[in-house]
Write a structure and sequence with these properties.
- The protein has 9 helices and 10 strands.
- It has helices at 18-26, 45-56, 77-97, 124-144, 161-171, 189-192, 195-206, 240-250, 266-279, and strands at residues 2-5, 31-36, 61-67, 101-104, 148-150, 176-180, 210-215, 217-220, 228-231, 255-258.
- The chain is α/β, with parallel strands linked by helices and 285 residues long.
- An 8-stranded parallel barrel has the order 1-2-3-4-5-6-7-10, surrounded by 5 helices. A two-stranded antiparallel sheet has the order 8-9.
- Helices cover 40% and strands 16% of the residues.
- Helix 5 runs parallel beside helix 7 (195-206).
């Protein structure tokens, strides 16, 4: 396995400098995930070349790249098309940056936030629009030579391994893969206590499509009614033995990314991941 981190790269690529690259290298990460907050049309090709060069000098590559876009499952066709177009432009920018893949969210119909739940997210018509949008986005993947990895979540249409598999088969493109993030498929307290079974299902359904992984942990809070939250790897209930051995069997050179943590907790998370990989006899590349 190769290790990356997603929380140290700023959303403004122009402020990435040698000092930040050295910090990432000192933490022994060889890959990063980068989020772009603004319009990809406003990012110059020269900025991409400079960013890549600074990171490469420290042996670091941009593996995952994300950006913001309108809901690609919107019932408003103009909004849906705008979201698809922006996603396509993010892929174009990723190619200039030399990114290995672009993370694509299924988005939500909730007007408050792209990840928040909404009842219509789960309708068959929503799935139809998602498939259409992903097929259109895949055309940009082919044009620019950059695949996409779907980001999933129980709050979205991509809410279960079986649903994700069905969507991937319907899109039917070699450019469309999936990012393996077990925690975001935890949909109940029972699942939280049985993550080995969840991981078995994930690998059985999605093995041919997995392109990368996100590493985090999960726990149940002692609160009413149900509160299932993320936590630093090693402090929760996720079966990391099943997670890491399954991923290694599929992608021994694939990247696992530590994410959603404050910078102060990254060393602890990285230390746990490396310790667990050593215990399992898995090499870190």
């Amino acid at each position: 396995m190769s290790l990356g981190v997603t929380v140290l790269i700023p959303v403004d690529l122009s402020v990435i400098n040698e000092r930040l690259a050295r910090k990432i290298a000192e933490l022994c990460f060889t890959g990063v995930g980068a989020h772009l907050a603004g319009d990809p049309d406003n990012v110059l090709a020269e900025t991409c070349r400079r960013t890549s060069a600074i990171l490469e000098q420290q042996g670091i590559r941009v593996v995952q790249f994300w950006g913001m876009y309108d809901p690609i499952i919107s019932t408003d066709e103009m909004v849906r098309r705008a979201g698809v177009h922006r996603a396509q432009e993010i892929i174009r920018l990723a190619s200039q940056l030399g990114a290995a893949m672009v993370g694509i969210r299924p988005t939500s119909l909730n007007p408050e936030f792209t990840w928040w739940p909404y009842p219509d997210n789960y309708l068959p018509a929503t799935e139809t629009r998602l498939i259409r949008s992903l097929r259109e986005i895949a055309s940009a993947c082919e044009a620019h030579g950059v695949p996409i990895a779907l980001e999933c979540h129980v709050t979205t249409k991509l809410d279960s391994p079986k649903t994700v598999r069905r969507v991937l088969e319907a899109v039917d493109s070699p450019w469309v893969k999936v990012n393996l993030d077990p925690v975001i498929f935890v949909d109940s307290i029972t699942t939280t206590y049985q993550t080995a079974a969840l991981l078995t299902e994930l690998f059985e359904e999605l093995a041919p499509y997995i392109a990368s992984a996100h590493i985090k942990d999960v726990y149940v809070e002692n609160r009413h009614v149900v509160h299932i939250s993320e936590i630093i790897p090693g402090d929760g209930l996720l079966d990391f033995d099943a997670f890491f051995t399954g991923f290694e069997a599929l992608l021994p050179d694939g990247y696992g990314f530590i994410e959603h943590l404050p910078e102060s907790q990254i060393p602890q998370a990285a230390a746990f991941v490396r310790m667990k990989l050593r215990q399992l006899g898995i090499s870190i590349h």
